[in-house]
């Protein structure tokens, strides 16, 4: 039985094992955060997405959008049997604090794939917070009160 946490590479290269790669899979307003191995293939990544979205790998297209702290001018379509490390998705370029962004498109009913669209995150405007008093001001308030 397939589960997302048991997909790790079956690669024989021990230096690639257990090196986590952190990814944000983005499609429209959907964001999926995944951790996998740099020795995983794109197909294995699609199987992880399948476990979450219930969409078969053949009905998914993945594109590299952002890696190594920079956006790509042209999105790179990812091929199923290529390793993530071959696309530069490595622990140093896809960190938990700055994951690589992978765009996702799905096959439509007519057989074509939708255009890649990633909705920006909202930027809420917070009400101005009251000024925080420092310790000296608080102490002065208590000293001037008659008890």
From TrEMBL:
One Gene Ontology cellular component annotation held by this UniProt entry: VCB complex
Every Ubiquitin-like domain range: 21-91
SUPFAM superfamilies: Ubiquitin-like (SSF54236)
GO BP annotations listed: transcription elongation by RNA polymerase II
Matching InterPro entries: ELOB, Ubiquitin-like_dom, Ubiquitin-like_domsf
The protein's name in its UniProt record: Ubiquitin-like domain-containing protein
Record organism: Cardiocondyla obscurior
């Amino acid at each position: 039985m397939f589960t997302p946490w048991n997909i790790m590479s079956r690669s024989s290269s021990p230096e690639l094992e257990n090196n986590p790669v952190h990814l944000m899979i983005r499609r429209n307003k959907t964001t999926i955060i995944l951790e996998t191995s740099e020795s995983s293939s794109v197909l294995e990544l699609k199987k992880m997405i399948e476990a979450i979205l219930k969409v078969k790998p053949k009905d998914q297209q993945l594109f590299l959008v952002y890696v190594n702290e920079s956006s790509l001018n042209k999105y790179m379509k990812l091929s199923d049997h290529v390793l993530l490390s071959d696309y530069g998705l490595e622990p140093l370029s896809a960190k938990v604090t700055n994951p690589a962004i992978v765009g996702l498109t799905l096959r439509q009913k007519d057989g074509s794939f939708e255009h890649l669209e990633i909705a920006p995150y909202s930027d809420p405007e917070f009400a101005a917070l009251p000024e925080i008093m420092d310790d000296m001001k608080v102490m002065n308030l208590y000293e001037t009160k008659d008890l």
